[in-house]
Amino acid sequence: MGSGPAGFYTAKYLLEKQPDLHVDIIEKMPVPYGLVRYGVAPDHPEVKSVQETFAKVADNSRFRFFGNVELEADQQEAGIGGDWTKSRAEQAAEEFSQTSLPKTNVITIEELKKHYRGGVVLACGAENDRKLGLQHEDDIGKVLSARSFVNWYNGHPDFKWVGDQIDLSKVEDVVIIGQGNVAIDCARILTKSAVELAETDLADYALEALKKSTVKRVQVVGRRGAAQASFTIKELRELTRLEGVTVSIDANELAQGMTAASEEEVACSRGGGRIMELMKTVTQETSDRAEGAGPGAERDIKIRFLLQPQDLLSEEQPLQVEVPVPLDIGTKLDLDVTPLESSSVGAKVFELKRERSLRGISMARTALTGAKGQQKAMVLKDRQVEVLPAQLVLKSVGYKSVRLKGVPFDSTLHVVPHTKGRVAQADVDPEPVAVEEGELLKKDGGMRQLSQTLRGVLGEEAPAIVPASEEKKGVEEESSVTPLYVVGWLKRGPSGTIASSVTDAKETAASVLADVAKGARPSKADPAQRIPALRASTVIDWQRVKQIDSYEVSMGERSSPPRPRVKLSDVGEMVGLKKALREKAQAKKSKAN
Ligand code: FAD
Ligand code: NAP
Question: Phi then psi for 264, rounded to 5 degrees?
Fold first, then answer.
């Protein structure tokens, strides 16, 4: 389940190593590649070229793709219904969105396990956000997760609402909380010239919004010091080379974070010295500019350290919307709305709900405490507070995996617990679970740990764990449970690059292959014929993926300036593609005339 790097690399190794094996990838989006399409920055096309490797995997005759089919998420955790994971603004955006999305086909874990007897690999990534825990974090439309912003500029069909929520032509100051590479991506996209962005596969609507952007100052804020920033040198250097952009670091902030433990961390880490050198150069340039030695720039990115978010500064104001009349909006949307005035063009202005407008965010100064590698940010006793003006705040503090219905989940770490990619299942099997004795017993107390984890996740219902050798029969005979595996961010948590998926996928694939060798039963009948969601007319197969791909690429070639592709961002269009192909034919015809 899931067609990001983790899913595709696992498929690749399974197909390569076992010539009889068939792999189906089931993906909730109509198109494949996960964060390679909807995460990786549009101005990094060289990273996206990994898609070619994945497309070769898909060309294998033992591979099939089922797009637009979603594995059922846990309702409470996924925020369907009573929601705590999505912000109110996000929910409102969803409620009001006028999309024509065909419903995604839903598949359950029970269906998968019943029909894919050889095994099910979960590669669903991290589809939610960590939160800051600030008051009004969820009530202010201009406070967004970086994930929402990234999905929006990358043309993710479910995130077009972001454009309605943030009007970049009214924003001058942006604060980004967090100092990972995602934060750097966001800072770069917000400050790079629209001329350069126009040559990328950035979503059309995002390009239009960025062309009108009045953003002048972006602050990328870390709660810890320079030595603990998690962005990498390549990404920081790229920022410093942006045309019309200055990058600033304050000398005092840099120095305050360099505790003895920080010095040791820099000395011990690979590349730590080089990135510190770059930060020192930026700091020197910042001081020179302050003394009038350097040129001014249109936009400034400040890298700030040792600041912990305290309060979002906002004020409540009515949000008014204009809707065409007649429209039975009160009934249709189940809202208590007040008509304020009528306009002559057949529209009515309604006060829908009160909105909080954002003025800025206050930050408390911190200091580092703790030993090398474990330093924490502690708010200083005198609670020095600095207010950062902002009309837009992006929270870039990490993605978070979603609990899938019927799948064990560690609610603290937000991952599926596993041993070398094998998920210990207890939910459906009343019998003791057979596990790999050798692997678990290698570590002292491995069995006990697994038992504890299961008990933490499942409580009293957790099964007894016994080594496989103590079981009377072999895996394939004794257990009626289809083996379940996990890979990628759902297995490791939301960090690491595409390259880290390689080692990870090899480990999970090795577990699958070992179980297959031991005789895990293959499916007798074609699962796709037995699961209704896989037979729906709105399922996208690999042939349609290729049609969409060549359509997008051809639209890109025809653009001026040429672009790698023009992304379709409407599920209806991707499922049908008729409208898109009609337009293509029309354009071809008019070009010929
Ligand atoms: P994902 O890529 O997220 O894939 C998960 C897939 O599962 C998705 O296709 C999703 O739609 C699908 N899915 C989710 N839930 C379900 C469900 N219920 N049913 C069916 N399908 C489901 N790494 C680099 O090396 N270079 C970069 O430049 C880079 N840029 C990045 C930029 C951003 C903004 C982010 C967030 C990450 C970036 N990374 C980059 C890291 C890289 O993208 C990840 O390491 C990698 O994508 C993780 O792979 P994955 O397969 O676990 O998850
Ligand atoms: P990340 O690297 O883990 O960074 C998260 C940042 O959020 C850290 O600075 C962290 O600070 C901060 N943070 C977490 N909780 C916080 C809180 N409560 N308050 C304040 N700050 C908080 O995650 P990411 O940027 O989302 O990136 C995810 C992964 O994708 C990374 O491995 C990254 O390298 C990869 N990626 C790679 C590229 C690329 O190769 N070009 C591009 C994008 C992403 P602390 O350290 O203090 O916790």
Answer: -65, -40
